[in-house]
């Protein structure tokens, strides 16, 4: 089945956001979000509220670019709202020398505005081992 114009535009919006994240471009990432954006990210707190300052601080913990690979992106779009989910592979090196090689789940809620499709909701997560350890399952691969 061929993608609709809305689905194509949502794919482009998410890819542009990921490119801005990889380049550690605060303005580019912020431009991908709508007013009232809500983020539930991998790192604490439960709800992201730090905005530009928090994003810049997180980018400062990375040594070089952040590698992002998106796999299995699925999009459902209406005339004014859309939903997407994918698996994301994040790789890179932190400033403390620690390598990052992590697969996680990502969902997006988007709305159409005069400026195009903007992300209003984002949720990233990893499963956890239910063996009593409650460890994040960051060693999983698709």
Which keywords apply here?
alpha+beta, 142 residues, single chain
Please sum up the structure shown.
The chain is of the alpha+beta class and 142 residues long. The protein is built from three helices and five strands. It has one domain: Nuclear Transport Factor 2, Chain: A (Roll).
Biggest sheet statistics = 5 strands, mixed
Helix content: 10-25%
Number of DSSP strand runs? 5
Low-confidence runs: none
Q: Cα distance, first to last residue?
A: 24 Å
Please characterize this protein's 3D structure:
- This protein is α+β, with helices and mostly antiparallel strands.
- The chain has a single domain (5-125), classed as Nuclear Transport Factor 2, Chain: A (Roll), CATH 3.10.450.
- Helix content is 23%, strand content 40%.
- The protein has helices at residues 5-22, 26-31, 51-59, and strands at residues 33-40, 67-77, 81-93, 99-113, 116-125.
- Strands 1-5-4-3-2 form a five-stranded mixed β-sheet.
- The model has no long low-confidence stretch (mean pLDDT 93).
Question: Layout of helices and strands, plus pairs?
Answer:
Blueprint: H1 5-22, H2 26-31, E1 33-40, H3 51-59, E2 67-77, E3 81-93, E4 99-113, E5 116-125
Parallel strand pairs: 1-5
Antiparallel strand pairs: 2-3, 3-4, 4-5
């Amino acid at each position: 089945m061929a993608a609709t114009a809305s689905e194509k535009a949502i794919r482009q919006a998410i890819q542009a956001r990921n490119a801005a994240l990889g380049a550690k471009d605060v303005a580019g990432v912020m431009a991908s979000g709508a007013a009232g954006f809500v983020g539930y990210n991998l790192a604490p707190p439960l709800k992201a509220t730090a905005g530009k300052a928090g994003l810049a601080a997180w980018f400062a913990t990375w040594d070089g670019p952040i590698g992002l690979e998106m796999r299995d992106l699925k999009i459902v779009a209406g005339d004014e709202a859309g939903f997407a989910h994918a698996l994301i592979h994040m790789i890179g090196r932190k400033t403390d020398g620690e390598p990052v090689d992590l697969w996680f789940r990502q969902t997006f809620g988007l709305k159409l505005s005069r400026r195009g499709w903007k992300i209003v909701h984002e949720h990233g997560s990893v499963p956890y081992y239910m063996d009593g350890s409650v460890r994040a399952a960051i060693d999983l691969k698709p």
